[in-house]
Amino acid sequence: MEELMKLPYEYDALEPYIDAQTMEIHHSKHHQGYVNKFNAAMENSELKEKSVEEILKDLNQIPEEIKKAVVNNGGGVYNHNFFWGILKKETPFKEDSEIGKAIIEKFGSFDKFKEEFSNAAATQFGSGWAWLVLNKENQLEIIQTKNQDSVISLEMKPLLNIDVWEHAYYLKYQNKRPDYIEAFWNVVNWEKVNELFSEAKS
């Protein structure tokens, strides 16, 4: 059974870019809701001793009658756990880091990467996520997932993500998703992304 992840910082730690009220509601209501519904779906399943990550990595093992609830709510648990972990102020992008060099080699420049990632986030229709992943060919790739679908179900290794469900930004940014995306770049924990990249390559 899953438990709500404890945030590694206070709700106001990402101000002014992501406001404390949004963080509190997002974590204690939305994320908690996914945890509760995932646990309810898994209650009578033989898979309930497995972690949400183990379950999402192989969707074929999930019984058909609970698959939709497990994918939606398990994805909600995993995607948010990952998202909280890559957020932190004042950990800037470094061109000479492992991930920095890889991004520049793949996309040409950090600005070009930022533009492509922001565009993926802005153009994700409806609710969902944008991700930077290491794909099955061990290449960096920017992808979108709808609703709470997760990249680990696609055999990809996540390095960075942004939640573009309206609940992630509506209190502060209303319908101005691009403003929220622009603010997001101020709270990316590039040290953590670099660490994830090093692990994913090995």
Give the N-to-C terminal Cα separation: 29 Å
What class, by secondary structure content? Answer: mainly alpha
Q: How can the largest sheet be summarized? A: 3 strands, antiparallel
Query: Spans of 5+ residues with little confidence (pLDDT < 50)?
Result: none
Write down the secondary-structure element order: HHHHHEEEHHH
Compute the average pLDDT. Answer: 97
The percent range for strand residues is 5-15%
Shape: globular
Number of strands: 3
Topology:
Blueprint lengths: L19 H23 L9 H5 L7 H22 L12 H10 L2 H14 L4 E7 L5 E7 L10 E7 L6 H4 L3 H8 L5 H12 L1
Antiparallel strand pairs: 1-2, 1-3
Helix pairs in contact: 1-3
List keywords for this structure.
202 residues; mainly alpha; Helix Hairpins; minor pseudopilin epsh fold; 2 domains; 3 strands; 49% helix; globular
Write up this protein.
This protein is mainly alpha-helical. The protein has two domains: 20-85, Helix Hairpins; 98-201, minor pseudopilin epsh fold (3-Layer(bab) Sandwich). 49% of the residues lie in helices and 10% in strands. The chain has eight helices and three strands. It has helices spanning 20-42, 52-56, 64-85, 98-107, 110-123, 170-173, 177-184, 190-201, and strands at residues 128-134, 140-146, 157-163. A three-stranded antiparallel sheet has the order 2-1-3, sandwiched between helices. Helix 1 packs antiparallel against helix 3. The chain is globular and about 50 Å long.
Give a concise summary.
With 202 residues, the chain is mainly alpha-helical. 49% of the residues lie in helices and 10% in strands.
